[in-house]
Amino acid sequence: MSAAGDRLQDTARQAALALPDVSHGYPFTPGLDVYKVADKVFLIVTDDPDDQIITVKCEPEHARAHVRGYASITPGRHLDKRHWISLGPGPGITERLVTDAVEDSYDLAVERLPRRDRPGAR
């Protein structure tokens, strides 16, 4: 079953908040809910009901595969198009795909942190 826009965003938010040491807020603009781990962004959720997307970090080869494989996955909006993808509602965009994308994005952000700043290192 495909995830509708609001469900897609709710699923992404829940997945992000279930991960260790996640914070979120609106540092850029009131319409973008930004999720971070140790000040590294890994998820952006739009609050615009007419543009229900999420944007996540993604390895470049996986990003290209997702963009080719799903009509509603595009290179990251307003971000580095090689390392970010935006997911919108559409065929094949399941809750599992959304959760996996959020968790993978979080893992990429954590991998780039100094060991002392990684969750559980304290």
From TrEMBL:
UniProt cross-references to SUPFAM superfamilies, sorted A to Z: YjbR-like
One Pfam family hit: YjbR
Keyword check for DNA-binding: yes
DNA-binding keyword on record: yes
Signal peptide span: none
GO MF annotation terms: DNA binding
Domain of life from the UniProt record: Bacteria
Alphabetized UniProt keyword annotations: DNA-binding
PANTHER family on file: CYTOPLASMIC PROTEIN, CYTOPLASMIC PROTEIN-RELATED
Descriptive protein name: MmcQ/YjbR family DNA-binding protein
Organism the protein comes from: Streptomyces spongiae
Lineage of the species this protein comes from: Bacteria, Bacillati, Actinomycetota, Actinomycetes, Kitasatosporales
